[in-house]
């Protein structure tokens, strides 16, 4: 069956290959925007950390998103603690800073595919350390900003998952209920 042509002034529906991605894209856009605005409202100096956290939290369904939010939050908490422990060492010289960044990168690459939260334990101090290459920043401020942005981003991502529903999933549930109703009616009609 050919789809009906849209009425005057109506936009045509997206191509079938794009339809499954619209809810996910809308969630990421909504969550990222909410996270960025909330981070700016909190006065955090690195709002992009909240945006990245929100985007990483959003998964295919709410259960996976909650799981990813917990992983991201735990990994970032341990990562900021690791960064705080490494600050005195990395500020001893450029060579130590570069070697530490390389070690954290290797750890992130080795761990992220096996366990997301363990990978973020390495990614978080590496991201914080990369800000140090441009000049020294107060460690307490960096740790506070990263932790605040993690919480704001995770909350915004979960809120976006709640606000932007997956209509395709709802349509599948409705179709399944209709099939069950039809089967029930057919079963009751049998003498």
Automatic annotation (TrEMBL):
Compartmental location: Membrane
Record-linked InterPro entries: Memb_transporter_dom
One GO cellular component, as annotated: membrane
Membrane-crossing residue ranges in chain numbering: 77-104
Membrane topology classification: Multi-pass membrane protein
Keywords tagged on the record: Membrane, Transmembrane, Transmembrane helix
Domain Integral membrane bound transporter, chain residue ranges per copy: 34-159
Name the record gives this protein: Integral membrane bound transporter domain-containing protein
Species annotation: Streptosporangium nondiastaticum
């Amino acid at each position: 069956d050919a789809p009906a042509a849209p009425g005057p002034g109506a936009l045509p529906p997206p191509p079938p290959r794009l339809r499954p991605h619209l809810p996910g894209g809308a969630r990421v856009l909504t969550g990222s925007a909410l996270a960025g605005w909330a981070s700016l409202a909190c006065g955090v100096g690195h709002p992009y950390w909240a945006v990245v956290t929100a985007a990483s939290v959003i998964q295919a369904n709410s259960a996976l998103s909650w799981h990813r939010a917990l992983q991201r939050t735990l990994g970032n908490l341990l990562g900021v603690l690791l960064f705080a422990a490494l600050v005195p060492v990395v500020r001893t010289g450029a060579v130590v800073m570069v070697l530490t960044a390389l070690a954290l990168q290797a750890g992130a690459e080795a761990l992220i595919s096996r366990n997301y939260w363990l990978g973020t334990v390495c990614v978080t101090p590496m991201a914080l350390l990369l800000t140090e290459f441009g000049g020294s920043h107060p460690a307490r401020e960096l740790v506070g900003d990263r932790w605040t942005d993690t919480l704001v981003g995770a909350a915004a991502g979960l809120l976006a998952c709640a606000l932007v529903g997956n209509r395709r999933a709802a349509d599948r549930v409705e179709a399944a209920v209709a099939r069950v109703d039809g089967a029930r009616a057919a079963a009751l009609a049998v003498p």
